[in-house]
Specification:
The chain is α/β, with parallel strands linked by helices and 329 residues long. It contains ten helices and 13 strands. It has helices at 13-24, 81-86, 88-109, 145-165, 189-199, 218-230, 247-258, 282-288, 296-308, 312-315, and strands spanning 4-8, 28-33, 52-56, 71-74, 112-118, 169-174, 177-178, 203-206, 212-214, 216-217, 237-239, 244-246, 264-267. The protein has a seven-stranded parallel sheet, with helices on both faces. Helix 3 packs parallel to helix 4 (145-165). The chain is globular, with a radius of gyration of 19 Å. The structure holds nicotinamide-adenine-dinucleotide and uridine-5'-diphosphate. Residues 8-9, 11-15, 33-38, 58-60, 75-79, 94, 98, 116, 118, 174, 176-177 line the site of nicotinamide-adenine-dinucleotide.
């Protein structure tokens, strides 16, 4: 019998890459998504496969999946700051009620569950780089609190199921990841800059651009998640690429990559935007034997090739003009 895995958030950026990976590994994959920030296009190539099935379902409602399940990957949740500012209540619900439902399902099915947490649990960190032992610096009532606190609750309830019900659980703390299948208009910095370059607009750097991020190529992340799922380690593990860059320098890299003649323009920094972020991946190295292999130059080349293959409809989708009203500065 095939191993069977449920992937929530299957039509999203990471969920769709995970579906591809587990299909390649010979699993039967059950995808679930309500398409609130995902796209059918990310997984439509899987629909003809008998190893793939899909439920259009909101995981904050009771989850029913017939048949056995060996694993659950709970990845449903908006992930871009613009998305979670647009749909704050759904964001709170999916990582709280949705995680509760996913854990309950895992218990009934005797399945191992891995939940997608985030570097946002560290908030605007005062410890650098961030180790898993750091408890974070999060503003619970700020605009980003809807995401950060829901993810912190997700970690708490996952550990409670692990300790109280002895459920097999895994927690991955994902740092900024990029690659093909990101939504061009999701507001995250990489699609934002590439979209602007392709449309012939200036690149909008928020703040003075000195804030840093550390970008991980999606294939590296997926490998880390796969190894963590197969490991016997229940505490949170950072997965990300420690190569750190300021947003101003990143904008220059995108200008070079795309060959655009546009310039950088500066806009005020959104409230609670973290000033620095870099994963300490000692644990991932030691426990999973994992580290990233694809550097930013290569990862950006592959990602740019994907974005240039998209239609003009997508490039000029009106959503990209609507960001401003959601950002709280
Ligand atoms: P995404 O928005 O592309 O994908 C999320 C998917 O979840 C979407 O397809 C969306 O429709 C679905 N979804 C949302 N709410 C749902 C609900 N109630 N029921 C069913 N489906 C629902 O985002 P992503 O970048 O693929 O992120 C996936 C997961 O990884 C999220 O949990 C996110 O918090 C986490 N994460 C991502 C990053 C990153 O850099 N991409 C970083 C840290 C954490
Ligand atoms: N950012 C920017 N211009 C944009 C979009 C984002 O300067 O058009 C900045 C944002 O303020 C943050 C960084 O880029 O400092 C990364 O933002 P993103 O939304 O990708 O993710 P975050 O790491 O903040 O969750």
């Amino acid at each position: 019998m095939h191993k069977r895995i449920l992937i929530t958030g299957a039509a999203g950026f990471l969920g769709s890459h995970l579906c591809d990976r587990f299909i390649r590994e010979g699993y039967e994959v059950v995808g679930m998504d309500n398409l609130i920030t995902g796209r059918y296009e990310n997984i439509e190539h899987l629909f003809p496969l008998k190893e793939f099935s899909f439920y259009n379902h909101d995981v904050t409602k009771f989850i029913h999946v017939p048949g056995h399940l060996d694993y659950i990957l709970h990845f449903a949740s908006p992930a871009s700051p613009i998305d979670y500012l647009k749909i704050p209540i759904q964001t709170l619900k999916v990582s709280s009620l949705g995680t509760h439902n996913a854990l309950g399902l895992a218990r009934v099915k005797k399945a191992r569950i891995l939940v997608a947490s985030t570097s946002e649990v560290y908030g605007d960190p005062t410890v650098h780089p961030q180790t898993e032992a750091y408890w974070g610096n999060v503003n619970p009532i700020g605009p980003r609190g809807v995401y950060d606190e829901a993810k912190r609750f997700q970690e708490a309830i996952t550990m409670a199921y692990h300790r109280f019900h002895e459920l097999e659980t895994r927690i991955v703390r994902i740092f900024n990841t990029y690659g093909p299948k990101m939504r061009l208009n999701d507001g995250r910095v990489l699609p934002a800059f590439i979209g602007q370059a392709l449309r012939g607009e200036d690149l909008t750097v928020f703040g003075d651009g000195s804030q840093t991020r550390s970008f991980c190529y999606v294939d590296d992340l997926i490998e880390g998640i796969y190894r963590l799922l197969m490991s016997d380690y229940a505490e949170p593990v950072n997965i990300g690429n420690p190569s750190e860059i300021s947003i101003a320098e990143f904008a220059e890299e995108i200008i070079k990559l795309t060959g655009t003649n546009q310039k950088v323009i500066y806009q005020p920094l959104p409230v609670d935007d973290p000033m620095q972020r870099q994963p300490d991946i000692t644990k991932a190295r030691e426990i999973l034997g994992w580290e990233p292999k694809i550097d930013r130059a290569e990862g950006l080349k592959r990602t740019y090739a994907y974005f240039t293959s998209l239609s003009n409809d997508e490039l000029y989708n009106k959503d990209h003009n609507n960001f401003e009203k959601y950002i709280i500065r």
